[in-house]
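Consortium newsletter contribution from the modelling node. Members have asked for a concrete example of what our holo predictions look like. Here is one, prepared for the zinc ion complex that several groups have been discussing at recent meetings.
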Amino acid sequence: MAYQGGFPQQQYGGGYGQHPAAAAGYGAGGYGAYAPPPQQPAVNPEIQNIFRNIDKDSTGRINNRELQQALINGRGDHFSDTACNLMISMFDRNKVGTVDIFDFEKLYNYINQWLQVFKNFDRDASGHIEESELTQALTQMGFRFSPQFIQYLIAKNDPVNRKEISVDQFIVTCIQIQRFTDAFRVRDTEQKGVITIGFEDFLGIALSMCS
Amino acid sequence: MAYQGGFPQQQYGGGYGQHPAAAAGYGAGGYGAYAPPPQQPAVNPEIQNIFRNIDKDSTGRINNRELQQALINGRGDHFSDTACNLMISMFDRNKVGTVDIFDFEKLYNYINQWLQVFKNFDRDASGHIEESELTQALTQMGFRFSPQFIQYLIAKNDPVNRKEISVDQFIVTCIQIQRFTDAFRVRDTEQKGVITIGFEDFLGIALSMCS
Ligand SMILES: [Zn+2]
Ligand SMILES: [Zn+2]
Ligand SMILES: [Zn+2]
Ligand SMILES: [Zn+2]
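And here is the predicted structure:
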């Protein structure tokens, strides 16, 4: 994996526990939950520098294209539009499709947490996640999926049949699974793994997740 | 609505019936269903010209960015990434994220059908679809949604509260609704408007629709 724009690979150095889902922001303070503080705290000078490097047009906001330019996956490709849109939308307090420096500080930490999670699961350090690695990752995140479903997840991301997914695909897949799981869980009140759902509710969930 | 790159607004001239969903490719020969013929028929010379104008890099394939450049909605904005990705993915036989001229001929006709559908429903010719127009459109497509759901559909596309959606948002919304409806319908065997669904199946549907 390579990072342009100064994203360090090891910012956290293992300072959190064994549960990658918590590290990835699934626990307290997960996405969408925070409100801007009344007074913005000062942003770490290192992050200020990184922000300025990424904000090529110096508008004081980072857009999807700028973020894509800054992030490169293990195939040497820029992160996908989908991945950057998804992550920006999680931290863009003003809902304008771009992040300011305060949003960016949180986004930056969030991306680094994901990179660390990815690295932990990429046991052979190939820069990709293969089927067995994805199975382990999702199991450790608390999911029990069939082998067919894991294969489907990979195939969905992998039209040329490399049988692996890149870091940006991994991040998007995990975030989408987590969101749909949350939506499912609140309706699965008896924890049966089966829900009964009406048409509009179903559509509403489905559409809310698609960008 | 404005079209760059020579998309005529009126190619079809009302040559189809009253049901916009059929016009929009929901009927026979809908998306994803066709296979390439063994021998490619000749492409209409007008469409060849349009193709060459859009294919700025002359690679013989139109990518998302090129299509976005060619399509402008009633706000003067280019069609969204999401809209162009979605439409390209429907006609990209080789699953490479771009269309060749044979794919493009079908894509071009498909887009023109949608533009015509949009124009029919934009009764005040504002270039946008407002709530009452969207209600009528979806009703004519055979849906019975609550007013709250229609408002949700608009709000989802309309962060700045203009209370209207643009043509590209309309196309994406209709395609997504139609796909989720198809997925719902095959599970709603008794036509009750309610289904019982397991976790993996639910996730699979939801993920398959998100790019
Ligand atoms: Zn910028
Ligand atoms: Zn690996
Ligand atoms: Zn091209
Ligand atoms: Zn209108």
